[in-house]
Amino acid sequence: MKTVTAFDPRSGAACGEFATSGVDDVREAARAAAQAFESTEFGDTLRRARFLDLIADRVRQRASEIIEICSRETGLPLQRLTVEVERTSRQLSMFAEMVRAGRHLDAVIDTADPDLTPVPRPDMRRMNVPIGPVAVFGASNMPLAFGVLGGDTASALAAGCPVVIKGHPAHPGTGRLLAVIAAECVAEAGLPAGVFSYCLAADFEVGAALAQAPEITAVGFTGSLGGGRALSDIAAARPVPIPVYAEMGSLNPVVITEAALRSRSTDIADTIIGNVTAASGQYCTKPGLLFVPAGTAGDALVQTVADRLRQAQPCPLLSEPVKVRLTAAMEQLASSGDGTPVGESTPPSDVGYFVSPAVYVVGDGPLDAMPSAIEEYFGPIVLIRRYDSTDAVLEDISRLAGQLTGTVYSDPGDDVSRIVTALCRRVGRMVFDSSPVSVVVTDAQQHGGPYPASTAAWSTSVGSQAIFRFLRPVVFQNAPQGLLPAALRDDNRRSVERHRNSR
Fold it and tell me: What residues are labeled active site?
């Protein structure tokens, strides 16, 4: 039997060995999920809501144990994980409330109107239904909120879709504990075991088999561009193609005006430094490319950010592969001439998977002619591009691919409308005079963006709207009351929120 070993990134010491799943295991899990999808128990929305609440409560009850194991496997600080475990439980509770109210159904009723011209209208009743079993690939950088019981899993279960999750091999102990919690809650809620299945593997073959399983109807993924694109290609090549909702990272460009620097350069520098070093720079929303005006105000900001990052302590990355990839990318950036380091950082220790924060100034050529200057650096690294006019910034923005976020720091007297318009064409979330790092779980949230930030710019992986990735609409025309789903019947016994006759 194959195994994966967990390591403490701060020391490099092994901290656990875990058995992995094979291709046959994921295929069996997919078949079990398909059987669970047909069950009346899981189809009961109120029971499903209670199930989600049960998981949320159990996560809170076992928070200390989860945080201890997760910190050991990821090197992430206890305070950060305390916030993340609360976010994880809140997401589950949010979806439970949404399902209980029936908001996910988006129920619409247009009653018959035989006198309508030019064509009489039949009785039309529409609502969302779950699409079927969903495969979820957990993230490395947010092991709880985007992990085994994270947003993809929570939204799929809330929609009524059984989940088969492939846990991330960088934190297998965390994934196994969360999977145990989920399995206990499945049993306590009286649901079929196939509602939730956990698989652990480091082999791409296993993940590919999961995406190819005929029972799987959609994939949720958070990770690298290479991984997300590979899954998308596999899903598209199936006899029956399925959607892959992949969130794959971003540069998250930030435009800073000269007036903003002159009025609050210290605050801006503090925010940037905090963003770049938070979680060792491993947030997908970390601002990775700053557009800083030419001149003395811009010079001062660059020097301040460089000096303070150079003085910062080396940061532990999530795993050895993350360190290897980041180190190679930084070497390529410098050797290509696309970026020049500002000063020298404190060399990291050979113990563990540490890297030193660093600042690079991008060269003067067209951005898309400097590939190393427009890729994501998964760590405490930030690139700076100087500009001397709005037109220069607009030209650079036009050469960027899709992004998760775009940020503008400006003063009330600045005309940044063209910059905002240009960024909005390329981002999913537009941020003003504040940090883009935090992705608040709310109804209005949008976490996704044009490719390659994600594969489905019209959807979000965070917030209540994430549930709609795993639902599809069905219309009932002239259906007898007895054959309608309860949410569409006239009596509406569960008081489901509905739109009626275009109101």
Answer: 247, 284
